[in-house]
Write a structure and sequence with these properties.
With about 575 residues, the protein is an alpha/beta fold. Helix content is about 40%, strand content about 25%. Strand 16 and strand 17 form a beta hairpin. The longest helix is centred in the middle third of the chain and has 18 residues.
């Protein structure tokens, strides 16, 4: 039985003659007790469609055509035509939303308990003196271990997984009929992601929820959803039962999304992309003998790796952060981020560093580059002890040791165009003598990462997430580095864009002889790109080995749990 119907929906943004079509003549239905997956790349219209259901789009949105109907028992409600005060009674009460980013969705000035209580009070579902007990009930229901502590905590005091559970409690506390989940697990570790997905399945069964689950990850969609709608450029590309889509995808775009995702079962030289399938409709042999790396070849590569020179030697590295001081400034409590870490990185090697959030991965990467203070231990780069260098002594080495951060938008200055972003490091390190040479190098770098020379005068907001990450990689390459730390540099990208960036890094490693420390929480990604893997938990190295060793024969229970959490 249908509970929601979208008919011939078209939505544009802008004004007058500068309209951009975000959704085009879309038709879809949601059934009672069903989980409907909407999948597609960034800009495909997924979130616009979902936000239009409760009319949460910005004032620049124009509903060009169509209607959205909510079926409440024997009553049909036209969501696009009812008055705002009527819609307020539906938002959160009948139709609720779990947003993607909890830190930006929650008010930093209010406790988590007060924010969930606010929804119950707004809809006048309980007397004020009973609200706290109901909030604590829902915190327990969504798997929060210390509901009283979380009730009194502000958002910045909780982990990403805890915050996402708070958002789920906020979305469910009024017992809605429909829940819209807008990429709620995209930035979470694989372990936490699986727990959240399992929680949604349990809640759907218990309360007979109808869920619209938005994602760019077809692995998540396959695990969770009953039916799938594939969107691209605002239009529906394909729709079918979930099992049918994965067994027999009809559209080349859908095939590209499915097969561009790295696998933990095999190791490829190059990931297939959406473009591959679109350029060649008969593109079927992406996993042939040429592209598939077998165990014999891996063994040969491992022998070559052992014979390569050591570029970076990390010995007994310890990193601590001060948590509190007394009135006199004396340190009273420290947090140990990295505990006695020792490992080597060879020339031309990609060393994968995996672990959950809070395991110390980013602290370790920044510690090697001198961006975080080291408590003890040593980092030796080409015979130079980096931990003992002054800022002045560090400066000439900065061009050889670079980093690509996770969020490409916050890594680029929004007030500077791409030309300035790429050439500024060249000017600082005085690599090229004049502007002409710097511009030629900038153009060459952009073309190397798959962009065009005309992009130089554009600003970061004019690019997609994948393009911005390519620009950050181009900027890191501008100084001809020997070593790059890639800190979760593909974790927030669409699977199709992720495949392009991973392929690019493999090509650049081969072309320039780069060494990489590739930080991620996804073992399937690290299986594709890494020559060796280190597993980190709570600042301690749990195990180290080649990808096939770690994945096929993990020694630690922690590594086994990471592998079992993969979806």
């Amino acid at each position: 039985m249908k509970i929601l119907s979208i008919e011939n929906l078209s939505i544009s943004f802008g004004q007058n003659d500068k309209l951009v079509e975000a959704v085009k003549c879309l038709n879809l239905d949601l059934n009672q007790g069903e989980i409907l997956g909407i999948v597609g790349e960034s800009g495909s219209g997924k979130s616009v469609t979902a936000m239009s259901i409760t009319r949460l789009l910005s004032s620049s949105a124009q509903y060009v055509s169509g209607r959205i109907q909510y079926f409440n028992e024997d009553k049909t409600i036209e969501l696009l035509s009812i008055k705002e005060n009527e819609l307020q009674g539906i938002r959160g009460r009948a139709i609720s939303i779990i947003f993607q980013e909890p830190m930006s969705s929650l008010n930093p000035l209010l406790t988590c308990g007060d924010q969930v209580a606010e929804g119950l009070l707004a809809h006048k579902l309980l007397p004020r003196n009973e609200v706290k007990d109901k909030v604590l009930f829902w915190f327990s229901k969504v798997g929060i271990q210390e509901p009283n502590r979380v009730y009194q905590s502000f958002p910045h005091q909780l982990s990403g997984g805890q915050l996402q559970r708070v958002l789920i409690a906020l979305a469910l506390c009024c017992k809605p009929k429909i829940v819209i989940a807008d990429e709620p697990t995209t930035a979470l570790d694989v372990g936490i992601q699986k727990k959240i997905l399992d929680l949604l399945l349990e809640l759907k069964k218990e309360f007979n929820l109808s869920i619209i689950f938005i994602s760019h990850d077809l692995g998540v969609i396959q695990y969770l959803c009953d039916r799938v709608v594939v969107m691209r450029h605002g239009s529906k590309v394909e729709e079918s039962e979930t099992s049918e889509v994965f067994i027999n995808p009809k559209q080349n775009y859908t095939k590209g999304l499915i097969y561009s995702r790295p696998s933990i079962k095999y190791k490829l030289r190059r990931l297939p992309t959406v473009t591959d399938f679109e350029k060649n409709p008969d593109y079927k042999n992406w996993k042939d003998d040429i592209n598939l790396i077998n165990s014999t070849e891996q063994d040969r590569k491992n022998i070559e790796l052992c014979q390569a020179k050591i570029l970076i030697d990390v010995n007994n590295l310890k990193i601590e952060f001060i948590q509190s001081r007394n009135w006199f400034g004396k340190i009273t409590k420290k947090i140990v981020a990295i505990q006695q870490a020792s490992f080597k990185i060879h020339e031309g090697e990609v060393l994968g560093l995996v672990g959950e959030s809070g395991s110390g991965k980013s602290s370790l990467g920044k510690g090697i580059l001198g961006l975080t203070q080291i408590s003890s231990g040593s980092v030796i780069y080409k015979g130079i002890e980096l931990t003992k260098l002054s800022n002045k002594e560090w400066r000439p080495l900065r061009k050889e040791l670079q980093i690509v951060f996770q969020d490409p938008y916050s890594s680029l200055n929004p007030r500077k165009n791409i030309y300035s972003a790429i050439t500024e490091p060249m000017i600082v390190h005085q690599i090229y003598s004049n502007e002409k040479e710097r511009k030629e190098k900038a153009v060459d770098l952009l073309e190397t990462v798959g962009l065009k020379s005309e992009h130089l005068q554009r600003y970061p907001h004019q690019f997609s997430g994948g393009q911005r990450q390519r620009i950050c990689i181009a900027r890191a390459l501008a100084l001809n580095p020997r070593f790059i730390v890639c800190d979760e540099s593909v974790s927030a990208l669409d699977v199709s864009v992720q495949a392009q960036v991973l392929n690019l890094l493999v090509e650049l490693k081969s072309k320039f002889g780069l060494s990489l420390l590739f930080i991620t929480h996804d073992l399937s990604v690290v299986n594709f790109i890494a020559d060796r893997i280190i597993v980190l938990q709570n600042g301690t190295i749990k195990e180290e080995g080649y990808p096939y060793q770690i994945i096929n024969n993990p020694k630690s229970e922690y590594t086994k749990s990471l592998i079992n959490s993969l979806i």
